[in-house]
Design a protein that fits this description.
Blueprint: H1 2-32, E1 68-69, E2 74-77, E3 82-91, E4 96-109, E5 117-125, E6 129-139, E7 145-152, E8 160-161, E9 170-176, E10 183-190, E11 196-206, E12 212-223, E13 227-234, E14 244-251
Antiparallel strand pairs: 1-3, 2-3, 3-6, 4-5, 4-7, 4-8, 9-10, 10-13, 11-12, 11-14
């Protein structure tokens, strides 16, 4: 009898414990449990880093390839007191972009370690692309800039996944005016079924050594599907001998903050 009573008491205790767990434990668990997100400052869920990689829109810095600079930035003269700087860069990441990639540009006189001018700003880095960054016109009334350095603020990069992995726009019919060599005309062609807006185009002119000798920039407000738009670049003086003309288009997401 005592044995049966003990067993009954045990079974009753077991049932009570089960129901208490079911009706109290589970609600408490679901109340305290938080579904992993890309904003909880933890590496959880399918993430490969803290709030990055995997299912997150943000790309982990360790998974992104560095932006490549194709040569040093080049300083060139536009007029007696105005200059410009241009450099060509490449983003090898096929599906990652940066909306605001910070950088520091320093401009120097020859043999002077103190910069004449320091520019800190940011620019848009599209995925899987080659593009040019152009600074100018820059006024130097009593100095003669001759060289520049360019440095990305890589620690502040915020890489994001994107579906815009191809640049469909191409430049055709490049024609450098033979009579004055101060004007370059071309056509921007859009073979796709999409309209593009806020298009920056930089023309890079190389000298006989393959170095950028001068550059110019222009904008196209928009281009319709399967259409062409004429573009023109000009310079205040003759360009001299050239061996290569390259025009690089870049579609800007928001022209208000892009330089």
């Amino acid at each position: 009898m005592n044995s049966w009573a003990s067993r009954r008491k045990f079974y009753i205790s077991l049932v009570v414990t089960f129901f208490l767990t079911a009706f109290l434990g589970f609600p408490v668990y679901f109340f305290l449990h938080r579904t992993p997100t890309c904003l909880d400052n933890k590496q959880n869920g399918l993430e490969t880093g803290i709030d990055c990689g995997g299912s997150c829109q943000k790309v982990c810095k360790s998974e992104a390839l560095p932006i490549l600079m194709k040569g040093d930035p080049r300083v060139f003269k536009l007029s007696n007191t105005t200059y410009a700087v241009a450099l060509e860069v490449e983003n090898p990441n096929t599906n990652s972009e940066i909306f605001r990639a910070g950088y520091t540009l320093r401009i120097y006189e020859k043999d002077n370690p103190t910069p004449l001018k320091i520019i800190e700003d940011s620019t848009f880095v599209p995925a899987n692309s080659q593009f040019a960054i152009y600074f100018g016109p820059l006024s130097f009334s009593s100095s003669t800039p001759s060289r520049a350095t360019f440095e990305w603020m890589e620690n502040e990069f915020n890489w994001q996944k994107t579906d815009n992995t191809q640049m469909p726009l191409t430049v055709q019919d490049k024609n450098l005016n033979a009579s004055s060599t101060t004007k370059l005309s071309a056509s921007l062609y859009n073979p796709s079924s999409k309209t593009f807006s806020n298009i920056e185009l930089v023309a890079l002119i190389s000298d006989t050594d393959g170095n950028i000798s001068t550059a110019s920039k222009t904008f196209v407000d928009s281009i319709s599907p399967n259409s062409e738009v004429p573009v023109v670049f000009t310079w205040p003086s003759e360009l001299g001998s050239t061996t290569q003309v390259e025009i690089l288009p870049r579609v800007l997401p928001d022209i208000s903050f892009i330089k």
